[in-house]
Design a protein that fits this description.
By secondary structure, this protein is an alpha/beta fold. It is about 40% helix and about 15% strand. The protein contains eight helices and six strands, in the order βααβαβαααβαββα. It has a six-stranded mixed β-sheet. Helix 2 crosses helix 3, helix 4 packs across helix 5 and helix 6 packs across helix 7. The protein starts with a strand and ends with a helix.
């Protein structure tokens, strides 16, 4: 058996401003740094948890959360893999917009459809839009056609699944990790996609799955990646309250 730990980054500067962020690169807020340190302490308190490898997205808020948490857990030396496939979903033309103002303009149900439906993406960015990530140097090795201008959760599942199968899955099966743990520090929707695949959550049910910031989610897997146990570390009530706060962001 091996463990997969899924950790959504701590609150970011745009989380504090209640803006749609997606692929836009922002740093952690001071509260997010506190959350990252708390996550590290929760990881360190798991006496039977042996972290072996770290995976992150290419976005600063995930990378810094991982660095802070691992420093707190005395695991800064872990081997690291990073991939754009673990990025947050791309929010298209909603990027940078205030979530509550967007709900007032388009209606709560429309915004909920864009935020939480499985296969309805927001309106796309134009290719020439300055918010596009196509010319960002961190994606210089990614085929241009793969860099999205908008995404729904279905698109995120499509890009996360092969990364789990070909990279993370191989780590979990390797001699160096088997019996230990792989830590993934990513984003609400890339983690939602991983949970959907591994926990066999249906398209209608995934709409109501909220991923709180800064609270590690531990999954124990067998050799076929069947989930034997899954739970948030720490106080279950705190995790539930944090998830509810995420749900309220768009009003």
């Amino acid at each position: 058996m091996s463990d997969l730990i899924l950790l959504r980054h701590g609150r970011s500067q745009w989380n504090d401003l209640n803006l749609f962020t997606g692929w836009h690169d922002v740093d952690l807020s001071p509260e997010g740094e506190v959350e990252a340190r708390a996550a590290g302490r929760l990881l360190a308190e798991e006496a039977d948890l042996d972290l072996r490898v770290l995976h992150t997205s290419l976005l600063t808020r995930a990378i810094r959360t991982a660095n802070i948490a691992l420093h707190e857990a005395d695991r800064s030396w872990l081997s690291v893999r990073r991939s754009w496939r673990l990025n947050e979903r791309h929010y298209g033309d909603l990027t940078g917009l205030d979530k509550k103002e967007t709900a007032e303009k388009f209606g709560i149900e429309q915004v909920k459809l864009w935020r939480r439906s499985f296969d309805v993406p927001p309106p796309p960015l134009a290719l020439a839009d300055p918010r596009s990530s196509r010319d960002d140097p961190r994606y210089r090795d990614v085929t241009k056609e793969l860099i999205p201008q908008t995404e729904c959760l279905k698109d995120v599942v499509a890009r996360v699944t092969p990364y789990f199968r070909d990279v993370m899955g191989e780590d979990l099966k390797s001699e160096g990790v088997r019996g230990g743990a792989v830590l993934v520090v990513a984003h609400g929707n890339s983690i939602r996609a991983l949970r959907m695949v591994l926990e066999n959550i249906g398209e209608s049910e995934i709409t109501d799955v909220e991923i709180p910031t800064g609270i590690p989610y531990r999954m124990t897997l067998d050799e076929e990646f069947n989930v034997l146990d899954a739970h948030f570390l720490g106080d279950p009530a705190a995790a539930a309250a944090a998830a509810e706060a995420v749900a309220r962001q768009a009003g």
